[in-house]
Specification:
It is built from four helices and no strands. By secondary structure, it is mainly α. It has two domains: about 80 residues; about 40 residues.
């Protein structure tokens, strides 16, 4: 993989990162524009007929999306540990790159040892709580 870069690993990773970030930004921009279009279509199809209000423009539909975001918060819930980005966007704010790389083994560890280890830990906590209540 790194031999295609014509340079060292760091430059290759940064180049990949910039492409990934640009792709994400492009995806978000297209999603926002599409959402604005859908809001405009739904408003203009339903609201004038139901409430006898006027139609809205595309820019007003985008404004409604922003207002809804401000009033109601996130459009979804935060992802769990599997979707968490260890190290932030494009490696910004990474404390230790080697430590972040270890997270790729988390799922295997959880299936092999983690569940059982957690059950033992929880049972010990429950026993301590029961002992304190006596």
């Amino acid at each position: 993989m790194f031999d295609k870069c014509g340079s060292d690993k760091k430059e290759c990773v940064n180049r990949f990162c910039y492409c990934r970030c640009f792709g994400c930004a492009l995806f978000v921009a297209v999603a926002v524009l599409l959402a604005g279009f859908v809001v405009q279509l739904l408003w203009n199809a339903l609201i004038p007929a139901i409430f006898a209000l006027g139609t809205i423009s595309f820019v007003q539909a985008l404004g409604l999306l922003i207002l809804a975001r401000l009033l109601f918060g996130s459009c979804g819930h935060r992802r769990g540990h599997h979707g968490h980005r260890h190290g932030g966007w494009c490696g910004w704010a990474k404390k230790d790159a080697a430590e972040c790389g270890d997270w790729k083994h988390y799922d295997a560890w959880w299936h092999e040892e983690g569940k059982e280890s957690f059950k033992k830990y929880a049972a010990g906590k429950k026993e301590n709580k029961d002992a304190q209540n006596l």
